[in-house]
Amino acid sequence: MSELALLGGKPVRQESFPAWPVHDERDVEAVSEVIRSGNWGGYPYPGPRTQAFLKKFAEIQGGGYGVAVVNGTVTMEVALRAANVGWGDEVIVPAYTFQATAAAPMAAGAIPVIVDIDPETYCIDPKAIEAAITPRTKAIIPVHLGAQMADMDAIMAIAEKHNLIVVEDCAHAHGAKWRGRGAGTIGHFGSFSLQSSKTVTSGEGGVLLCRTQELANRATSIIDCGRPHDPAEQEFTMGANYRMSELHCALATVALERFPDQAKEREAMAAYMDEALSEVPGVRLLKRDPRHTTRSFYCYIFKIDPTVFGFGHDVVCEALQAEGIPSWEGYEAMSHYELFQPKLSKLPVPTAFPERFDFEKLELPEAETACQSEAVWLGESVFRAGQKGVDDVVNALKKVYENREALKQRS
Ligand SMILES: Cc1ncc(COP(=O)(O)O)c(C=O)c1O
User: How far does the centroid of ligand 1 lie from the alpha carbon of residue 172, in Å?
Assistant: First the structure.
């Protein structure tokens, strides 16, 4: 049994995994063309590259009316505002996500109501959504986390029953499909981030896919300083400059050209990973729902069983990193974020500040378990290094398992 790198042994992998984002002369040429054109920004909206990019994005995702926005946080704020969700309304969000999912409703003036996840998928639990609905609930933001998709059948059924807006947070889900339908085209809105770690990136940027032209027109006004974008409308609305620039759209268009091949490669390697990881003791794969027909891989998340290893995911990740594997423990549960301070709200208590939003009283056992002891996240780069890349991940995990006693005893 070879010694763990963390304890002084030789790492399983010595070379680094492929860097992200991938780039070549096509990106340089695309940006140079925009520079030569003199039309660099996002005004007047939409410019020619913005239009071409949005057309291609909607084609790949399988529908929707696209709006090009500065990032994948503002997209969600704009979606809520375009749907008239705002001051005093409640928006249900999962406890396991990046802070942006809860910050966006707050920016729109609404209250994020944080609910627990399904431990099998790590996505929002539809039962928890139902239990959290009040007369003030106006929207749900399911997050398609890592390589998973939330149960969109159950979520849309709840939304229809209670007349709620659904904004899919697809920051991790470019190219993903649920029963053949693209992530972000099932709810009323799909919010995508193009930030530099994302699988389609222009450094910064975002796309909001809207279900109708009318919603897209309203969202466009909000991101274009309030200018009217509905042909029948002359009045300005309340808006700001959240436009994505032509320079960014040119880069994003090249990224989309590469995306289908990259997605196929990741999917093939992830299938190989599923097989191999299921043989490692103490490792549990997240549920693969058969309705999730195309997976996309921003991150690959699995669970470890701390009772088998004798320690939690923090130690597993530390040991994997020492073996040369890009892995980490993932997000904190939302209830642990200090960002949200509902007690500072000027809204009247208790009508607009439900007691269940008090962080001291929030009970999110599944998210807590995932965040505090079980979840292990792998970066997408492990799927761009051929079978050897996946083998290295699996061998490193086996090595951690085999050396678990030594690791437990480390001073
Ligand atoms: C789940 C999730 N939602 C939203 C965002 C926000 O995207 P952006 O950084 O483009 O604002 C991110 C990531 O950055 C994310 O991971």
Answer: 8
So what's the pLDDT on residue 233?
A: 86
CA 104 to chain centre: 14
**Best of 20, 97, 195, 296 to mutate for ligand 1, by most ligand atoms within 8 A of CB?**
195
Hey, how many other C-beta atoms are within 10 angstroms of the C-beta on 136?
A: 15
Task: Measure the CA–CA gap between 331 and 249, rounded to whole angstroms.
Answer: 29
Nearest to 227 by CA among 214, 216, 238: 238
Query: Probe ligand 1: pick from 78, 174, 193, max atoms within 8 Å of CB?
Result: 193
Q: Which residue has the tokens 């693209």?
A: 182
Eight-state DSSP code of residue 19: P
- Which mutation among 70, 73, 242 tests ligand 1's pocket best, with the greatest number of atoms within 8 A of CB? 73
Tell me whether residue 377 is in a domain. no
Q: Domain of residue 232: give its range.
A: 25-255
Residue 286 is encoded by which pair of tokens?
């997240």
Torsion angle defined by CA atoms of residues 186, 191, 194 and 198, in that order, rounded to the nearest 10 degrees:
-60
Q: How far apart are CA 276 and CA 272, in angstroms?
A: 6
- Residue whose token pair is 């050396």: 403
CA–CA gap between residue 210 and residue 216 (Å, rounded): 5
Digit-coded pLDDT (tens) for 93-150: 999 999 999 999 999 999 899 999 999 999 999 999 999 999 999 999 999 999 999 9
**CA-to-CA distance for 119 and 365, rounded, in angstroms?**
9
DSSP H or E segment with residue 181? strand 181-182
Atom of ligand 1 nearest to the CA of 76: 4
CB neighbourhood size of 276 (10 A): 18
Q: Which CATH number does the domain housing residue 245 bear?
A: 3.40.640.10
Q: Is residue 315 part of a domain?
A: no
For residue 164, tell me if it sits in a domain.
yes
Name all residues whose Cβ lies below 6 A of ligand 1: 71-73, 97-98, 100-101, 143, 169, 171-172, 193, 195, 206
3-state DSSP assignment of residue 257: helix
Total domain count, the chain: 1
pLDDT surpasses 70 at 351: no
Q: Which atom of ligand 1 is nearest to the CA of 206?
A: 10
Residue 361 lies in a domain: no
236 CA from centroid of ligand 1 (Å): 29
